[in-house]
Structures are given as structure tokens and as C-alpha cells.
Automatic annotation (TrEMBL):
SMART domains: REC (SM00448). It comes from the Eukaryota. NCBIfam families: myb_SHAQKYF. SUPFAM superfamilies: CheY-like, Homeodomain-like. Keywords: Nucleus, Transcription, Transcription regulation, Two-component regulatory system. This is Response regulatory domain-containing protein. GO terms for biological process: cytokinin-activated signaling pathway; phosphorelay signal transduction system. Residues 22-136 form the Response regulatory domain. One of its GO terms (molecular function) is DNA binding. InterPro entries: ARR-like, CheY-like_superfamily, Homeodomain-like_sf, Myb_dom_plants, Sig_transdc_resp-reg_receiver. Pfam families: Response_reg.
Length: 228
């Protein structure tokens, strides 16, 4: 593949990643807001613009799902810049902050409060070109954390002796071929336990071996009783 073809392919990949990604842009500086919006749209971002952080807070209160990331001028005249940052971070919405000057203390405070990235104004084409990489990394990081949390939750349940006993009892009671999550959950009768958690038990390889052994033992026991 030629260098030119590689660059073309990379550009197309970047465009596909940013295509229709919805950005909430907050900037009271009319000229800079228009400039930034234009650059974002050149990279196929879908942009919603507002002047004040308080207006953005109102939009976010309707749910973060409509936006992929937030880009805000932290120096909002309504003094809600950090409130917006804080609320967006709590919603796991990536935040790119725009600062009017190279204020190290402000940048440190913003990063400590959950900002993904702080960039000095004015925004340039080169900066916007690579923002998607930071946003994507943040989203993947959040996904992996949730995935790890799910694994930990499943692990904790398996280590619970009482739950484990109830689980295996339900398996033995139902018998081979009838071990469905709904039926196991009903037999266990444990408040707060979910079908998904029971299904996770069944999907763990070591549990398959344990259950197979238990069912075999139960079958042998039944055979002995029938022969006696």
C-alpha cells in the first residue's frame, strides 16, 4: 500500500469515527464559538451550540445520551463552568475544556475535577483533528471499568457460601436439561438476586464441571436406590 493510499484510508477511518458524533459546544465568545463549530463540522461532528454553562446544564438534565462529549469554555459569565464540568463528569460524559489563557492552576483544578483535556483558545484544525482519539480512549476506559465491575460482582456471588449452596441445590432439584436461569432463580428465592447473575453462574466453565459432577453423583445415587 502506498503512503498516499494509507493516508487516504486513515482519513476515511477518522471521518467514520467522528461521523454524527454529537458535541455540545459551550462558549460565550460568539466569534470563537462560530469558528469552533465550523471546524468541528468540517470533521463531520454534529454540533449543538449554547452560550452559557447554565443552558448546557439544562440540556444535560434531559439525559447525556444525546451527546458524545462536551466542549466548554470554563470561564462562563454565569459562573457555572465548574458546575457543568462536575455534572458532566458524574454522568461519564467526556469533557474538553477551552481556556482563555495558559492558566496552569485552572488547568490543574479542571483536570482534578474530571476534565478529559484542556486546550488553549483559539481552537485549531490540528487540535480538533485528534480530539476523537482522546474521547474514544475515555469511552473505552469506561467500558472496561464497567466490564471489570461486572466480573467482580459475579466473582463475589460465587464466593458466597450460602448462595453457592442454594444454587447447587436448585441445580440438583431441577436435574439435567432443566437448568434454566428463570427456574433456578425461582427455586433459590433470594431477594435481590437477578436472572443475569444466575445466568453468569451457568456461563463460567468451572461451574459446568462442578454441575456435571453433581448431576452424575445424583444419577448414581438414584440408580443405587432403585436397585435396592
Amino acid at each position: 500500500m502506498s503512503h498516499r493510499s494509507f493516508k487516504t484510508g486513515t482519513a476515511l477511518m477518522e471521518q467514520n469515527i467522528t461521523y454524527k458524533n454529537h458535541v455540545l459546544l459551550v462558549d460565550h465568545d460568539n466569534n470563537h464559538r462560530t469558528l469552533t463549530c465550523g471546524i468541528l463540522e468540517c470533521f463531520s461532528y454534529r454540533v449543538t451550540t449554547v452560550k452559557l454553562a447554565s443552558t448546557a446544564l439544562s440540556l444535560l438534565s434531559r439525559g447525556k445520551s444525546q451527546f458524545d462529549f462536551l466542549m466548554e469554555n470554563i470561564n462562563s459569565p454565569d459562573s457555572c463552568g465548574f458546575k457543568l464540568l462536575h455534572d458532566a463528569a458524574k454522568m461519564d460524559l467526556p469533557v474538553v475544556l477551552l481556556v482563555d489563557d495558559n492558566d496552569v492552576m485552572l488547568t490543574m483544578r479542571a483536570l482534578e475535577n474530571g476534565a478529559l483535556l484542556c486546550i488553549n483558545k483559539p481552537v485549531t484544525v490540528e487540535i480538533v483533528k485528534y480530539i476523537w482519539q482522546h474521547v474514544l480512549r475515555e469511552k473505552l476506559s469506561g467500558f472496561n471499568e464497567n466490564k471489570q465491575l461486572t466480573k467482580m460482582t459475579t466473582y463475589d456471588i460465587l464466593q458466597n457460601g450460602e448462595l453457592h449452596e442454594k444454587f447447587t441445590y436448585a441445580i440438583e432439584k431441577l436435574g439435567e436439561g432443566r437448568c434454566y436461569p428463570e427456574e433456578i432463580l425461582e427455586l433459590m428465592n433470594v431477594p435481590g438476586l437477578t436472572r443475569m447473575q444466575v445466568a453468569s453462574h451457568l456461563q463460567i466453565p468451572i461451574m459446568h464441571d462442578i454441575l456435571k459432577d453433581q448431576l452424575n453423583e445424583a444419577s448414581k445415587s438414584d440408580d443405587k436406590e432403585s436397585q435396592s
